[in-house]
Amino acid sequence: MSPADTQPSESADPAAQLPLLELRDGLSEVIDTDSVLSEAVEAFRSGTGPVAVDAERASGYRYSHRAYLVQLRREGSGSALVDPIPFGDLSALGDAIVDTEWIIHAANQDLACLAEVGMVPRQVFDTELAGRLLGYPKVGLASLVSEVLGYRMRKEHSAADWSTRPLPAPWLVYAALDVEMLIELRNAIEQELRREGKWDWAQQEFAAILDAPPREPKPDPWRRTSGMHRVRNRRSLAVVRALWEARDQIAESADISPGRVLPDAAIVEAASAMPAERDTLQKLTAFKGRGAHRHMRTWWEAIDHARKLPDSELPKQGPRYDGPPPARAWADRDPDAAARLSAARTAVAEIAEAHRLPTENLLAPDTIRRLAWSPPPDVNLEVVSTFLRDHHARAWQIALTAEVLTDAMTSEAKSLD
Questions:
Q1: What pTM, to 2 d.p., does this model score?
Q2: Which BP terms from GO are recorded (predicted)?
Q3: What are the tens digits of pLDDT across the range 244-278?
């Protein structure tokens, strides 16, 4: 059934009254053999216009972030569901569409896993990012399809384990729907961007996605353990670190999500309890599950190692920063910097509101903090513009914010004259 054939239901719920999005061409078979993949490559090579692309990972189930299903749709090519696991490399498919625009919702989430299988675009249109530039309060795919195109999408399999084989038919329908109307959504959003004078902004943002350098691993990833605020001393922090690292090695080796090997709650409970012997550890509530019990020797060895570390090797209480300290500490450490930050945040927020933008999409909060904490010498418009450019701000962002940020950086000095 095509979307045009569906009719709104009789319901008091406005969302339920939207026609349910259905597959126009029916559900195609999953592509998992060389011969069928070759046919798909030629079909997408001969298609016209942009291509809608999506990928499904097994977040929450697997350690890796690899793609377990790739979905595509193009005018004249139809839709395709490709299982990348039998192939490992899908560069032939990527090469067939490399010269056209790829429409991806939340491109930053999918580009890495697509590149891992040899699919790297030269041009993208990110419908989520475009929705942010247009000021939509909800920019999930289902929300935008509903708001812009008037169709209700299924959501029930968003957290499925896509490494499952064979993939159930209802999951495949859900996955195929993710690209069913991406082309129509992209075209409608382009019209809105042009009407609001934001088309050039979007073009710069899309180019920045592709030009962005690979993300550097964050220091001390163990500090992101949920519940860390309950860990009060450096010795307990060492236990968190030791358990996190032991869990990470097991999870990576088995390609299992770390939380399924040992929950964060168990790590924090052990760090808080500081058990002196293995029997005590085994009695902790969070360590009674099958997964925790399976590696009990490893957990105990990690804790015992942390307990015996010399004080000089214990982690520091606070995380390491490669930039300014947390803003909450500025008022005491540097009142002038705190005043600059407050003025800068207020000015940027006003511009964002005037243009119906999320503040973080107008200018990265970290860039504002770095500028306010340590502004360049001899602050002027050119210097601030260069600072923003060096911190990866786009031309449209600099044009909107450089002047007010220059004023914010010099306002304190002016008030002292």
A1: 0.90
A2: nucleobase-containing compound metabolic process
A3: 999 999 999 999 999 999 999 999 999 999 999 99
Q: Decide: 28 and 81 in contact? Cβ < 8 Å.
A: yes
The encoded tokens of residue 82 equal 């490709």
Length of the chain: 417
Topology (CATH) of 3-211? Nucleotidyltransferase; domain 5 (3.30.420)
Closest to 136 (Cα-Cα) out of 182, 198, 71, 210: 198
To the question of domain 221-313 being in CATH 1.10.150.80, the answer is: yes
Angle 353-403-205 from CA coordinates, rounded to 5°: 60
How far CA 67 is from CA of 90, 107, 202, 251, in Å, comes to: 11, 13, 27, 18
Domains 3-211 and 221-313 share a fold: no
Q: How many CA atoms lie within 13 A of 66 on its CB side?
A: 18
If one counts every other C-beta atom within 10 angstroms of the C-beta of residue 43, the result is 16
pLDDT in tens, 138-149: 999 999 999 999
Helical ranges in 141-263 per DSSP H: 141-144, 169-180, 182-195, 199-211, 234-254, 258-261
CA 267 centroid distance within chain = 25
Delimit the domains of the chain by residue range: 3-211, 221-313, 327-416
Distance of CA 84 to the CA centre of its chain: 21
Which one-letter DSSP state was computed for residue 149?
Answer: I
